[in-house]
Amino acid sequence: MQILIQSIEKSFKKQKVLENIDFTIESGHIFCLLGASGSGKTTLLRIIMGALKADSGSVTIDDLSVPDRRLLSLIGYMPQNDALYEELTVWENLKFFAGLHKMPRADFLKAAQALLSMTEMTDYQQKLIRNCSGGMKKRVSLMVALMHHPKLLLLDEPTVGVDPVLRRKIWQHLNSLKDGGATILVTTHVMDEVYQCDDAGLIRNGRIVALDTVKNLIASTQNSNIEELFFTNPTKDEVPAC
What is the per-residue pLDDT for 233? Predict the structure, then answer.
């Protein structure tokens, strides 16, 4: 699924949060939105999801203008803050969200077991969410997003609080989904995660400061370190006056 983002602007209480965001995410690619906390990543993701209205501009997903109810069953969304039912177990949460997508029982059981194995949560499926650690809740949120085999994944910092070994497994799984045709947008502030992606946009103070394929972004730096681009591409407010 292709995402076309055109001239998005967003402010909160007269504070500009996003300014002139304009780029395309190609179908079947993993796109990384890389930036520090407070740079506007989550706000942009919520606008793409249709959960937040932009002040101006538009988002189009496969020729459908966001928001559109027809897109809901095609999108897997993982918010930065876990949106889980604390009084339910891990398994009950998975079952509940699968029910929202009207998954057949056989499909749910197959998907749930595979995801529990991938996230190393098989032994904790009867654990109440309120008794889970922050990292475990992250894994459950990721499983919820993946459960119904969405064509488009919008993942807000999916590996925060996850140990390095499991993080590698998650990225391997995301790449396998991409190979199967899924389009994936990942936000992160972890610099090395950009190297797992096809394309990347670097966002700083609500503006895109660099945008290209990851290979081209790496090639454009002196030391093959994408972090350099945050300092060689200042936003307009940071450019010294003549």
Answer: 59
* Residue 39 belongs to some domain of the structure: yes
Q: Please tell me the pTM assigned to this model.
A: 0.89
Residue 27 covered by a domain: yes
Whole-number pLDDT of residue 126 = 97
User: Residue 34 domain-assigned?
Assistant: yes
Going across the sheet that includes 75-78, the strands are 75-78, 152-156, 183-188, 30-34, 199-204, 207-213
Residue among 220, 221, 170 nearest 196 (CA)? 170
- Min mean pLDDT across 64-78, 96-110, 157-171 is at 157-171
Complete DSSP assignment for 108-133: HHHHHHHHHHHTT-GGGTTSBGGGS-
137 assigned to some structural domain: no
Say if residues 140 and 129 touch (Cβ distance below 8 Å): yes
Cα 14 from Cα 12, distance rounded (Å): 5
Domain of residue 47 covers 3-82+150-236
Cα–Cα distance measured from residue 172 to residue 117, given in angstroms and rounded to the nearest whole number: 14
Q: For position 18, which CATH number holds? A: 3.40.50.300
> How far apart are the C-alpha atoms of 193 and 43, rounded to whole Å?
20
To the nearest 10 degrees (0 to 180), the angle between helices 134-146 and 105-118 is 140
Please give the Cα distance from 69 to 135 (Å, whole number). 31
Strand partners, 10: 18
Domain count, the chain: 1
